[in-house]
Every structure is written in C-alpha cells, then in structure tokens.
Design a protein that fits this description.
Length: 249
C-alpha cells in the first residue's frame, strides 16, 4: 500500500510559510508516497497554485457538514473541492476539544466530504495515558463506531490514530503499542466492513512524529502513513519524514 504522509499546519503560517511548500515541491518531483499538506484556509488557494498539477496534494483541516449556508467562519467540503483540495481532516482532537465536536458531527462531516469527492482522514485518539492498548481500544472503538459512516470505500477514507496525549508533547506510544493498536483497528475494520477490504484502509499514526522516530513508526506493521503537526511546518524536517516513508535513509 502506498504510504500517506500528511502535514497539518494548523493555525500556523502567513504567506511566507508557502516557501516551505515550494521547497517540498522541488524536493519531491516524483514521490513514491502520497503527500498532503493541510494549510490554514487563508493559504489554500495559493498552496494549490504552487503544487499545480504535480503530485503533492492540498487538503483542508476541517469542513462544515453543510455544502453552504449561514455558518459564519466555516468552510464547506464543496468549497475545499472547488478550490482544488483533494483531502480533508475531520475529527482532529483540537476540533473535538476546542469546538465541542462530537463523533456524530464528525461522521456528518465525513459524509459531507465524501459527497464532495474529497478523501477524508478521520482522527481518533484516547485521552488517557499509560493504559494498556486493550483498554485504550475501548475508547477508540466508540470513536470509530460513531465517527465513520456506514457506507465507505476504503480508498476514500483513512483513519488517523492520534493518542491525544501524544499530540504536540514530544511523547509517543512504544512501537509495540502502536503496532498493537493499529492491528486492533484493522481487525475492527474487517469486522465492521467486509473482511477483504480491511487491508485497503490506510491507518495513519499521529502524535509527535519527527525525523528521528519517523522511520521506526512508518516501518511498523499496519502503519500506512503518518499525520504530522509541528514537524510539517519546516520542509527540512517534513522532507526527512517523507524520505522515511519512501525508505530513503
Ligand atoms: C496533529 O496535530 O495531528 C499532530 C500529530 O501534531 P504533532 O505532530 O505536533 O504532535
């Protein structure tokens, strides 16, 4: 499966930040990995111009459940698609926490994104730290049950497993725990959807991925890519993570 490496710039970057995207475009003219940058909405159109028809893709960090309407400050999946975006992240823990988004809303956003022909990345993660994977999975299962729509094509929906305690903290689960959780999520997908499609979903890991830990994480069984926050802001760190996904050392 082709790995998926996603950079989430969050609420970071004014126009000068686009120089980092220009460098990535120059560094990876023919990547063996799917690369997506999710800039703030203000930079999306300019970012799409920079990547042009090349292989690096642009995505949104969130979308509204409706295609249009009286929703001041929001953007819709249709708008992201119209701008030239290819992906959208939904259910990021910062959206869940700062905007009180529950999993039912996340599911509605996923449906809106799929309707707009965007590929969707659904984030799930437990808040409790230092609990056995089996216990953490109980929380993850509820999030997956409620956040993922019943009718999905695995090519169009990826899951980002992002333990909330690992985001922006420099802490990560052990490789063994990442492997256990990803394989548990894969099993869940096989039980909920057709068994033979479980392997077609990409399950990303997110939470303090950096150039030092990227290769070990990306070489872990059932890890099909990474969702990267802080380390995606600079092309020199993000390119090292992409190289790790491509097996370049
Ligand atoms: C994220 O925001 O999804 C994330 C993983 O952030 P960081 O890489 O900075 O932990």
């Amino acid at each position: 499966m082709v790995k998926l490496v996603v950079g989430n710039w969050k609420m970071n970057g004014v126009s000068a930040q686009l120089a980092e995207l220009e460098k990535l475009v120059a560094l990876f003219p023919r990547p063996q990995t799917d690369i997506v940058i999710c800039p703030p909405a203000t930079l999306m159109m300019a970012a799409i111009k920079i990547v042009d028809v090349g292989p690096i893709m642009i995505g949104g960090q969130d979308c509204h459940v409706e295609p249009s309407g009286a929703h001041t400050g929001d953007i819709s999946a249709l708008m992201i698609k119209d701008a030239g975006g290819k992906f959208v992240i939904v259910g990021h823990s910062e959206r869940r926490e700062n905007h009180n988004e529950d999993s039912h809303t996340v599911c509605a956003k996923s449906i809106a994104a799929l309707k707009a022909n965007l590929k969707v990345i659904v984030c799930v993660g437990e808040t409790s730290h230092n609990v056995p994977v089996e216990n953490a999975f109980a929380d993850i299962k509820t999030l997956l049950d409620q956040s993922i729509p019943d009718r999905v094509m695995p090519q169009n929906l990826s899951i980002a497993y992002e333990p909330v305690w690992a985001i922006g903290t420099g802490k990560t689960p052990t490789i063994e725990d990442i492997a256990k959780m990803h394989s548990r999520i894969r099993r869940y997908l096989g039980e909920r959807f057709r068994t033979d499609t479980a392997n077609l979903f990409r399950i990303l890991y997110g939470g303090s991925v950096n150039p030092k830990n990227a290769a070990a994480i990306l070489n872990t069984r059932d890890v099909d890519g990474v969702l990267v926050g802080g380390a995606s802001l600079k092309s020199d760190t993000f390119s090292e993570i992409i190289k790790a996904a491509e097996g370049i050392h």
